[in-house]
Amino acid sequence: MKIITIYRGVNHHGRSRRKNKRKVMSLLLQAPAHIQFHILCAVYALLIGPVAIFRPQRDRLHRWLGYSWVVALALTALSSFFIFGFRIWGPFSPIHVLSILTLVGLVRGLHLIRQRRRVEHAQQMQSLYFLALGIPGVFTLLPGRLLSKAIFPSVAVWGFAIGVALLAGGIFVWRRFGPLSQHRL
């Protein structure tokens, strides 16, 4: 039975955490430029999304962050059409169908706010956050994919399981407590 100890930055394999972080960055930096761009846009959309779409105040900051989130999500969806690692229909895969649905959802969300239908707009954008970022995000953690290799090099299955659990937990909390906008608009 192995005992896993982490002491002063060294894990049970004797490698430092810094070396593992460098390996992650090395894998990402070795990826083609269009994949790096795609990852950058997706991470930005993932990080800025909660601040932009779950923020209770609907002020200039919400609008600015919201537009930057829409641009990042649109660029993520559009850049996915240049990634062909998992082919089913010619060069395309089910992820590309999600990209089309994401673009349609973004247009619908913008159309709803222009019509001043704030609750529906908030629901649309919150749904997109989980469905357009969460589902493809879980697929990127499948064993053998670039991000899975970079983030979870020795335990890829656990990375996928953690992704599924986080997505399911996020959707459960969001569905259980309802869209925050209904209570504050």
Describe it for me?
With 185 residues, the chain is mostly helical. It has 2 domains: 1-30, no CATH class; 32-184, no CATH class. It has 8 helices and no strands. It has helices spanning 17-30, 33-53, 60-79, 94-114, 118-140, 146-151, 156-177, 181-184. The radius of gyration is 19 Å and the shape is globular. Mean pLDDT is 77; it is low at 1-12 and 181-185.
Secondary-structure class: mainly alpha
Order of helices and strands: HHHHHHHH
Indicate the percent of residues in helices: over 70%
Q: What is the mean pLDDT?
A: 77
* Weakly predicted, low-confidence segments: 1-12, 181-185
Net shape: globular
- Give the tally of structural domains: 2
How large a portion of the residues is in β-strands, by DSSP E? under 5%
Distance between the termini: 56 Å
Work out the helix count: 8
The total count of strands amounts to 0
Major sheet, described briefly?
none
Question: Over the alpha carbons, how many angstroms does the gyration radius reach?
Answer: 19 Å
Question: What structural keywords apply?
Answer:
disordered C terminus, 8 helices, 71% helix, mainly alpha, 185 residues, 2 domains, globular, disordered N terminus, 0% strand
Could you outline the blueprint of secondary structure elements for this entry?
Blueprint (H helix, E strand, L loop, with lengths): L16 H14 L2 H21 L6 H20 L14 H21 L3 H23 L5 H6 L4 H22 L3 H4 L1
